[in-house]
Design brief:
With 198 residues, the protein is α+β, with helices and mostly antiparallel strands. It has one domain. It has a 6-stranded mixed sheet, with helices on one face. A hairpin with a 4-residue loop joins strand 10 and strand 11.
């Protein structure tokens, strides 16, 4: 009877894991988890980059649509130099000229010492002081790479990360070139469109 108990005891002692087996299984599990975490990190990085690229494209398209809408809203348009698009409106016998879009307003703008943001000193400039350059409705702040909308004493951001905004004219057609760049993903997105000048 004691030989049966000793055989049963020997059988029970051989069914457990040795320390070596446990160490190998923990090491294998750690390697598998390391591989899985690297794959997950790569997938998250790809998702974030795709999301930033999508945001950049949407931001650029929204900026271009805002420019086109503002140009379509004003019936009479002309481009006097490569940085300004003017509109005019006749009220009675008087023709009022205003700037629809300006890509280089630096000679009109002042910097706010608290925020560091460039803006116009007056929303309604005196035409006797600066008759050639009235305050634009849309302007491009190249230093901060932002496109702004300003009207009726309100200033709103249209889009940021705008690299450049350029105009060119050929036989009554205004071509608009807009570039936006996100340096965190090193992507540049370009849009070009044309609109008829009246």
């Amino acid at each position: 009877m004691s030989s049966k108990f000793s055989a049963l005891r020997e059988k029970n002692n051989n069914t457990g894991f040795t320390l070596l087996e446990v160490m190998i299984s923990v090491a294998l599990f750690g390697l598998i988890m390391l591989y899985v975490s690297q794959i997950l990190n790569q997938e998250i990085r790809l998702y974030n980059n795709a999301s930033k690229q999508n945001n950049l494209q949407n931001n650029t398209r929204a900026a271009m649509m805002h420019i086109i809408d503002e140009l379509r809203f004003h019936h009479s348009k002309k481009i006097s130099d490569p940085s300004r698009v003017f509109g005019s409106e006749t009220v009675g016998e008087e023709t009022i000229q205003y700037c629809i879009i300006c890509t280089d307003p630096s000679n009109q703008m002042v910097i706010d010492p608290l925020t560091g943001i460039y803006s116009f000193p007056d929303d309604d400039p005196d035409p006797e002081i600066n008759p050639d350059y009235p305050t634009p409705i849309i302007y491009f702040d190249e230093i901060n790479q932002k496109l702004w909308y300003q009207k009726d004493n309100q200033k709103k951001l249209i889009a940021d990360k705008i690299q450049s905004l350029k105009f060119s004219r050929a036989t009554g057609i205004l071509t608009i070139n807009l570039e936006a760049e996100d340096l965190s993903i090193n992507k540049l997105f370009k849009l070009t469109t044309s609109i008829r000048l009246l």
